[in-house]
Design goal:
434 Repressor (Amino-terminal Domain); Fic-like fold; 16 helices; DNA binding; ATP-binding
């Protein structure tokens, strides 16, 4: 594993000092990881994988191999113990594997068929169609949060640079900021950037820029309550740790979950932590859609009308208070399916 770490760091053009700084550990410790004289913790391995863009499975296998060799490699019964352990691990893995309901699996299968069809007609992608759909996304995402701009007014603000009479400065900024945040996640998608703390804080910074500059791109320092919800977000002193776990969960699960489930889970987990004073919903939906775009899907646009908004909030509430995410996963999957169907219809397929 030591060679893997050193090669990845050098490929990224980083010094051991810079890696240490980004990990929040001592520089000497990074050097010891690379020389093999110290073993990183599991959490540090996951962080290193994200930072150095090493495939998580590759680095975890290397780390576990060295851990096994160090613990039992010299023991005469090591091979027999490993054979017995293999049986045990296979059984535990099979029994603990998270099951997807047949209803959700059916929608995921339908989505995958639609995506195959979409992949075959990518040549029909149009900048103007994408622009129109992104405009709708900005309109709907802001409408969920109470912005009163119409779709036409949203268009005039973004594409004509007009000021709408009777609408507040905040509403204008929400429109402009959200559109810039979409451009940002598209850039991240094209660069195939991993989702990490820096990117999520940058998305949030764009959302609140000029509206609440002192809170833009910063975790909250006060306790908050979610209006109309019985879910109580974690205390402010727990937010940084919860967010650290959030990114570790992503790195651990991003290769094993269906992209729709992964995107929905990341949305639900982020909005449940509620790490910001304001803009949590918009940021969570942007993170969800970044994952969908990275995996070749299209933006899942949750509507802001009363019925859609209530269903969205109710499924989130169930996930947050009853530890049952099924309804929310189904809701997001259905939104993505409808978005794909509509997109294929627009391009005439």
């Amino acid at each position: 594993m030591k060679t893997l770490l050193k090669n990845a760091r050098e490929q990224k053009g980083l010094k051991t000092r810079e890696v240490a700084q980004l990990l929040g550990i001592d520089q000497a410790l990074v050097s010891k990881f690379e020389s093999g004289t110290r073993k990183p913790t599991r959490e540090q391995v996951i962080k290193l994988a994200s930072l150095l863009e090493i495939d998580l499975e590759t680095i975890m296998v290397a780390w576990l191999k060295e851990k096994i060799l160090y613990e039992i490699g010299q023991d005469e019964f090591a091979l027999k113990a490993l054979l017995v352990a293999e049986q045990e691990i296979r059984y535990q893995s099979k029994s603990s594997k998270k099951k997807i309901s047949s209803t959700l699996q059916k929608i995921l299968d339908e989505i995958d068929i639609l995506k195959i069809k979409l992949d075959g007609f990518r040549q029909f992608d149009s900048y103007r169609i994408a622009q129109a759909l992104e405009l709708e996304y900005t309109f709907e995402s802001n409408r969920i949060e109470g912005n009163t701009m119409t779709l036409r007014e949203t268009d005039l603000v973004i594409n004509e640079g007009l000021t709408i009479s009777g609408k507040s400065m905040r509403e204008h900024l929400e429109v402009i900021n959200h559109q810039e945040a979409i451009a940002y996640i598209k850039d991240l998608m094209q660069r195939n950037s991993s989702i990490n703390e820096r990117e999520v804080l940058s998305i949030h910074n764009l959302i609140l820029r000029g509206i609440q500059p002192e809170d833009a791109g910063r975790y909250r320092k006060v306790q908050v309550m979610i209006q109309g919800s019985s879910h109580m977000p974690p205390q402010p002193f727990l937010v940084a740790k919860e967010m650290e776990d959030f990114f570790i969960w992503y790195e651990t699960n991003k290769s094993s979950l269906h992209p729709i489930v992964l995107a929905a889970e990341m949305h639900e987990r982020l909005v449940t932590i509620h790490p910001f004073i304001d803009g949590n919903g918009r940021t969570s939906r942007l993170v969800m859609n970044l994952i969908l775009l990275q995996n070749g899907y299209i933006i899942a646009n949750i509507k802001g009308d009363y019925e859609s908004r209530m269903k969205y909030y109710q499924t989130l509430e169930t996930a947050q208070t009853k530890n049952n995410k099924e309804d929310f996963l189904l809701f997001i999957a259905q939104i993505e399916k409808e978005s794909l169907e509509r997109y294929l219809l627009i391009i005439g397929q």
